[in-house]
Design goal:
Layout (H helix, E strand, L loop, with lengths): L3 H11 L3 H8 L3 H15 L4 E5 L5 H9 L5 E6 L2 H11 L8 E5 L12 E7 L8 H11 E12 L7 H20 L2 H13 L3 H10 L5 E6 L4 E7 L1
The structure holds S-adenosylmethionine.
S-adenosylmethionine binds next to helix 1 and helix 4.
Length: about 230
C-alpha cells in the first residue's frame, strides 16, 4: 500500500503540470471517462455530492457542468497544492462557484455521517494507504440509499496487456519526465496501476466494505473501470 506522506508530496510536486500530463498521457480519453461518470451520477439524481481525491478539480467541474444547479458539490483532497490548482481554475467560471473545496484525508474524512447522496472518487482510491478503511469512510458519509462511484484504472483485456504494460513501464515515465520534470512520480503511478485489482476483485473489495449492490462497467478495453455501489 502507498505511503501517504510520499503520495502527498509527490502530488504537491506535480500539481502545476498535473492537468497537462493527464490529458497528454491518457490521449485525451480522460474527458470521455469523466463524461461516462457524470452521466451515471446524473441518473442517481443526487442533491449533495462529494468528489473525494478531487485533485485539481476536473471531475467536480464536470459534475457541476452536468448536474442541475440545485445540486451542492464538495471537492476534497489531502494535498493542498492540488486544491490550490482547483481553486485557481474555479475562478475562471462563475458556474463553478457553488463548489466548496476542502482539505481532508480519505482515511478519516472530516465530515459527519450520512451527509451525501453520492460520493465519487476518480483515480484516487489507488493512491490511498488503506483502501478498505477509505471505502468504509465513504460508506459512512453516504446516506442510506446513496451511491458510491469509483472511476479507476483496472487490468485491461488480455490481448491489450502487452501494449499497455509496455506503455506504462517505458513510454509513460519518459513522456512524463519531459512534461512534469518528475520521472519518478510517474514510475510510481505506472507501478500502482499495474498492481491495482482487476474489475471483479474491486467489486468484491467494495462489497466487503459494506455496500450492497455493486455494478461495474469496463471502459477502453478494460483500462479503466467504473464501479457503482449502492448502500
Ligand atoms: C491521480 S489524482 C486524481 C485527481 C482527480 N480525481 C482526477 O481524476 O483528475 C489522485 C489524487 O488523490 C489524492 N489523494 C491520495 N490519497 C488521498 C487521501 N488519503 N485523502 C485525500 N486525497 C488523497 C491526491 O492528493 C491526488 O490529488
Amino acid at each position: 500500500m502507498p505511503d501517504p506522506k510520499a503520495v502527498n508530496s509527490m502530488f504537491a510536486r506535480i500539481a502545476g503540470r498535473y492537468d497537462v500530463a493527464n490529458h497528454l498521457l491518457s490521449g485525451g480519453l480522460d474527458f470521455q471517462w469523466r463524461r461516462r461518470l457524470v452521466r451515471r451520477v446524473r441518473d442517481a439524481r443526487p442533491n449533495r455530492v462529494l468528489d473525494l481525491a478531487t485533485g485539481s478539480g476536473d471531475v467536480v467541474f464536470a459534475l457541476a457542468d452536468g448536474l442541475p444547479p440545485s445540486v451542492t458539490l464538495m471537492g476534497m483532497d489531502f494535498c493542498q497544492p492540488m486544491l490550490d490548482e482547483a481553486v485557481r481554475k474555479q475562478a475562471r467560471n462563475p458556474a463553478w462557484s457553488r463548489i466548496e473545496f476542502r482539505q481532508g484525508d480519505g482515511l478519516a474524512l472530516p465530515l459527519p455521517d450520512s451527509c451525501f447522496d453520492v460520493v465519487t472518487v476518480s483515480f484516487g482510491l489507488r493512491n490511498m494507504a488503506d483502501r478498505p478503511r477509505a471505502l468504509r469512510e465513504m460508506r459512512r458519509v453516504l446516506r442510506p440509499g446513496g451511491s458510491l462511484f469509483v472511476l479507476e484504472f483496472s487490468q485491461p483485456e488480455f490481448w491489450f496487456r502487452p501494449f499497455y504494460y509496455t506503455y506504462l513501464r517505458f513510454v509513460l515515465p519518459a513522456v512524463a519526465a519531459v512534461v512534469t520534470g518528475d520521472r519518478s512520480a510517474y514510475e510510481y503511478l505506472g507501478g500502482s496501476i499495474e498492481q491495482f485489482p482487476e474489475r471483479d476483485a474491486m467489486t468484491a473489495e467494495i462489497r466487503r466494505a459494506g455496500f450492497g449492490e455493486v455494478e461495474s462497467l469496463s471502459l477502453t478495453f478494460g483500462v479503466v473501470a467504473l464501479h457503482q455501489a449502492r448502500l
